[in-house]
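Lab channel / #folding
Pinned by the channel admin:
"Please post every new chain as: sequence first, then the structure tokens as a reply. Keep commentary short and put observations after the output so the thread stays searchable."

First post following the new format, from NK:
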Amino acid sequence: TNKRNFKRLKGGMLSFQDPEAHFDRATKLLNKSDLMSLFYAALEFRFAVEARLSHYAERADDILNKAGNPWKVKVLARHVNSVFGDDDRTYQIEMKTSTMTKPIIIEYTPITPEILSILGKVNNFLHYPGVIQCVNDGKEDHLRSLLNRGLEQLKECLSGGLQGPLIHEKNGQITMVIDAEKYPQLKDQFKSGGQISLRINVEPFLKEE
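Reply from TO:
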């Protein structure tokens, strides 16, 4: 597919690469009552998970100095977890400089095993036999329930601005990649200089009930 056919977002990201755009479309489609919108909502939910995992996988590749990303969700998740090893924990960074009146809170929010479990069940409906079974067996409500649960958890996963956990280098330095568009105030703070203090909290992520 020619990438020029896709709308570019701020920062040069293509719209089909943006997990939040897929999330928004999935949410809007799920609010509609027709069956076709339900299936398209399921597809957008899948794209949102894949796009978020792809961003984390790119960060993992930076660490491994390895080119290219796998595309299957399970492979992506395995690849990310092999580097970060934190698929069920959040990292919350409290960043403060001498010129700031209050700290900036930045989080890493993983795609959890619970999200992947829900996606696996949703994927059963994203092929022709699954569509037929959904219609014939009256499983629309079940699919809608899965998507509601999945999108609720995914909303939390998309809230974080860290592209992966902190990386502790051998020289004692800490490396992190931040989604600058979520924290526009950081650019001015870094320009102003001064010492930066970090407070790091690591907590279990939300679990599926």
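NK: Residues 35-64 form the longest helix (30 residues).
TO: also worth noting, The first strand starts at residue 89 and ends at 97.
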